[in-house]
Task: inverse folding
């Protein structure tokens, strides 16, 4: 089976695509028979923003943060569209969280919010899968957010200059039923503010992924569930949940 990484448009030489000589570009409808997608980035780290929508904070009984609430997911949690999300035996409550993903294009350190766009390679869809019971039990989020297969990304990445960021909406469907649907304009901290905040204490490298937070409507998944994260202009990230063997 040929394994390829897809983006909707060719990328600039010398950017994050250098990590993978097997990158292909084009329309997803041109995916060759017998091929499967890879995640559209290969991050050294996955930086996530918690409670970045006021209504999501409210639905979980949390206060709205005064500044971005940052946590990390390990790169080992990364999967592509079409891959299975594994429901771990250690958890009794696994939730979906649809999000906009931002892929970094060049090294970013102490970046001002107004210049943040210069450091963005492109945008993708993210499912920040969460073992909600373990997140609450542990009091910190590493285990609940960090299981293998708990960061689904794709189906592709679109270049920053080809994206209409202001029009993006995050829409999540589970078994065909809409669960989340909100514009990214509802984010408490926009993309520029997030990059400025993170790069003030952490160097962002080409290919790194930022998951910008989930809107309200999160809920549980079960083995057999089909979950789709859709952002118009990017595509549909689709994964099916399977029980851990």
Result:
């Amino acid at each position: 089976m040929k394994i390829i990484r897809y983006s909707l448009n060719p990328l600039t030489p010398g950017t994050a695509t250098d990590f993978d000589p097997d990158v292909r570009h084009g329309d997803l409808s041109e995916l060759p028979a017998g091929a499967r997608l890879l995640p559209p980035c290969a991050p050294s780290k996955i930086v996530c923003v918690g409670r970045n929508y006021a209504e999501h904070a409210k639905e979980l009984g949390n206060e709205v943060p005064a500044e971005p609430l940052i946590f990390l997911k390990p790169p080992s949690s990364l999967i592509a569209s079409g891959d299975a999300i594994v429901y771990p035996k250690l958890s009794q409550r696994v939730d979906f969280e649809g999000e906009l993903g931002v892929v970094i294009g060049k090294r970013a350190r102490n970046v001002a919010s107004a210049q943040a766009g210069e450091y963005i390679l492109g945008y993708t869809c993210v499912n920040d899968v969460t073992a909600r019971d373990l997140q609450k039990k542990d009091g910190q989020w590493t285990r609940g957010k960090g299981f293998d297969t708990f960061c689904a990304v794709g189906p592709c990445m679109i270049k920053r200059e080809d994206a209409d960021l202001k029009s993006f909406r995050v829409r999540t469907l589970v078994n065909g039923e809409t669960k989340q649907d909100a514009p990214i304009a509802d984010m408490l901290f926009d993309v520029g503010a997030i990059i400025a905040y993170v790069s003030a204490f952490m160097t962002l490298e080409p290919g790194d992924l930022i998951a910008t937070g989930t809107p309200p409507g999160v809920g549980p998944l079960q083995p057999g569930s089909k979950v789709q994260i859709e952002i118009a202009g990017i595509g549909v990230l689709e994964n099916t949940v399977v029980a851990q063997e």
